[in-house]
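To: structure subgroup
Subject: Chain for Friday's discussion

All,

I'm putting the inputs and outputs inline so they're searchable in the archive.
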Amino acid sequence: MQLNRREFVIYSSAGLALTAFPARSAGQPKSQGWCRAIAFDAFVIFDPRPVFKLVEHLFPNRGSELNGLWKTRQFEYTWLRTLSGQYVDFFSVTRDALVFAAKSLKIDLKPDQREQLMQGYLQLKAWPDVAPVLRQLKGAGIQLGFLSNFSETMLTANLKSSGLEGFFDEILTTDRVKAFKPDRRAYQMGIDAFKFKRAEIAFAAFGGWDAAGAKTFGYPTFWVNRLDSSEEELDAHPDAIGGMSDLVEFAKG
């Protein structure tokens, strides 16, 4: 079977995680009070839609096209850089993906427009359902952390922008291990930081590929499927799918 470049990147990078550990069966029973920590992908917490709306505003009639290619290349670059051992932080990846997308679509992206869009990634707000759920989880004594491709600068800036400072016990960025998710080195950060057993740390994913990667690594995985996306065909299924309020019940076991 012939694979195009994009398919090769996706399949190869997914294999970094999916060959590392056998997956637990979906829906495996958990004991009451099993969850001691939850590691979040950044996009579960931070809403990127204002950046996409800004693209639409700056480039009328081309915004949807630019957004689509920008988002696709953004993650393809993380996987390519991990595979090739040429790591740069996610902010740099995001900028490079934007420049590539604009050039590919022959859109005249001026320097001030590029910087305006990039600054948007440092000024994200939380999704409306986030703060009440974080309060519930903290009140239950569950430790919270990020386990994210975002750089530490991005995470701290957006925590401040969202008014969520003080909720998170761990700020785990892939900059620490120089490998983006779904590489197992990225997921291992949660165990190393929280000092709990793998089965006691839930992972809250935004992307279906990230849910598959975390599940294959061995984390009990909850997919906050905000975009109503189809589940990836990667032979690994999240333990549960739902909204933030459902995450509270999932954490209780």
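Points worth raising on Friday:
The chain has two domains: 5-46+126-252, 49-120.
The two ends are 43 Å apart (CA to CA).

D.
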